[in-house]
Amino acid sequence: MVKSLLVATRSADKAREIGEILHAAGLADVEVRSLEQARVPWRAEEERLEKFDSFEANARAKAEYFARLTGLPVVADDSGLEVIALGGAPGVRSKRFAGEAGRLTGKALDAANNAELLRRLEGAEERRRRASYTCVAVLLRRPAAPPEAFTGRCWGRVLEGPRGGGGFGYDPLFFHEGLGKTFGEATPEEKHGVSHRGEAFRQLAAALVRRPL
User: How far, in Å, CA of 108 to CA of 167, rounded?
Assistant: First the structure.
């Protein structure tokens, strides 16, 4: 029997990545649906969910909100880039690093955030461009269930300019030493194999294999 898992995101890119990772990890019998695919209407309060100072707290807030709203098994993640030279910024503010002006979305938002990151790192030497991507995924099997959290992290550095047109977010700027290329240049399979999101969601997949929905 196919089980449905709601992914608490309105990002088509993120939902696609999560589905690819979970299915590659052996969850072919789980139907992964984004908020749009599940036809969950947008509400203004969604904009106030990510108000905390940790990835886990933000992910948990989203998971709990959408589990209560839909009654479905839900997974939510919060992820971001942490740059040593910027004291860990943009961190939990990665999505809106360029500010709220204009309420940009999609590729336009990515471009604005990347431009702001490059502006702040202008002139920084390579060792100060060391950075990590972090992802925390929180699973709620039902609205009242205890949350299950899974964390992934990978290390690299921020380049002085974008390379590659793949991925999303800061991927064209994030150079992974193990791959020898940016996430923007990597194939989906290459990226998933080493990425923060890949690590976190493989842990989640293993938990669902041990105890299915």
Answer: 14
Residues tagged active-site: 78
24: closest CA among 206, 213, 210?
206
Nearest Cα neighbor of 60 from 156, 143, 154 is 143
Report all structural domains of the chain as residue ranges with CATH numbers, in order of start.
Answer: 3-210 (3.90.950.10)
Name the nearest CA neighbour of 114 among 168, 194, 195: 168
Name the maximum alpha-carbon separation found in the chain.
56
Alpha-carbon gap, residue 184 to 172, rounded angstroms? 4
Read off the tokens for 65.
């909100």
pLDDT at residue 27 greater than cutoff 60: yes
Strand-pair category, 30-34 with 74-83: unpaired
pTM of the entire predicted model: 0.93
